[in-house]
Amino acid sequence: MKEKTVVQEKAVVQEKAAAQPAVKKKITILMVGNSMTARKGNTTIKNLRNMAKKSGQKVVIKYLKSNDEKMKNWANPRHKSGKRLYREIRSGRWDYIIFQEQTKAATKQSFVRASEKLGSYIHSKSPRTQIIYNCTWAYKKGKKISGKYYSFNTMQKVMNKNYQSAASKSGGSVCWSGKAFALYRKSKGKKKNLYIKDNNHASKYGWYLNACCLYRSIFGKSAAGIKYYGGIGKNLAKKLQKVADKAMN
To answer: Which residues pair with 63 in a beta bridge?
Structure first.
């Protein structure tokens, strides 16, 4: 009789446990780059946090940034930026590490080589960490780099190719924010400026679009339908959500 009571008690405990909602795991994200990752006026991380919160996701986001920093320095364990990054990698606490190259350097093969080196170290020291490369956007009006002029379209194609190569050689994936910028620029109707006056950094509209692309890369689902509009207006936010989806497909 006593045995039966114990069995019944265990059954009740198991039933109560099954009835409890599963506790959602916090997703840990380390973002690594320069002013295109974090700076005054850059609302990407704020937008990403709020999108995640609005959709019921739990995230912890930390960033490492140094203005105008290049991947080759993040990949150098003796450089001050590299020392910071390698320490974070060895901590093993990150589900995702998101890299972003300096815009001009994204046209160079040194970016690909640095990514390959970092990928090898991450897979060795923190095998559970997934790598994402946030392929940013070319200069709005083009740019002369190392004596060669690149139009927006030409530069974006080179950046896309190098980001894809970096991902392929380091076991990562690509967030196609630059493609989203290009798609929006080609879209019909009156458009908001995705850039500020410096021809490089994004406006609040561009940062929101960037966050929509990152959301898709991290969570594997669209930001469309999330009722967080980043202070840019509901209709425009919805349009940018759809542009990000198209770029990421």
So the answer is: 31
Buried b (16+ CB within 10 A) or exposed e, 140-152: beebebeeeebeb
Which long-range CB contacts under 8 A does 234-240 form with residues at least 24 apart?
236/192, 236/205, 237/208, 239/187, 240/180, 240/184, 240/205, 240/208, 240/209, 240/212
Please answer whether residues 35 and 67 qualify as being in contact, where contact means their C-beta atoms are separated by less than 8 angstroms.
Answer: yes
Average pLDDT score over residue span 215-240: 97
Distance (Å, whole) CA 67 – CA 234? 32
Confidence at 25, pLDDT banded by 50, 70, 90: confident
Q: Which of 240, 232, 179, 230 is CA-nearest to residue 209?
A: 240
pLDDT tens digit sequence for 80-107: 999 999 999 999 999 999 999 999 999 9
**CA-CA distance, 131 to 125, in Å (whole number)?**
13
Please state, in angstroms and rounded to a whole number, the distance separating the CA atoms of residues 79 and 112: 18
Q: How far apart are CA 211 and CA 73, in angstroms?
A: 25
Q: For 34-53, give the secondary structure using H, E and C.
A: CCCCCCCCCCHHHHHHHHHH
For residue 28, the SS3 value is: strand
- Contact indicator for 149, 120 with CB cutoff of 8 Å: no
Quote the strand ranges of 76-141, DSSP E.
96-99, 130-134
Indicate the pairing of strand 148-150 with strand 143-145. Answer: antiparallel
Q: Which pair of tokens denotes residue 246?
A: 């198209």
Instruction: Render pLDDT for 198-209 as a digit per residue (tens, 0 to 9).
Output: 999 999 999 999
Structure tokens at 63: 């960033």
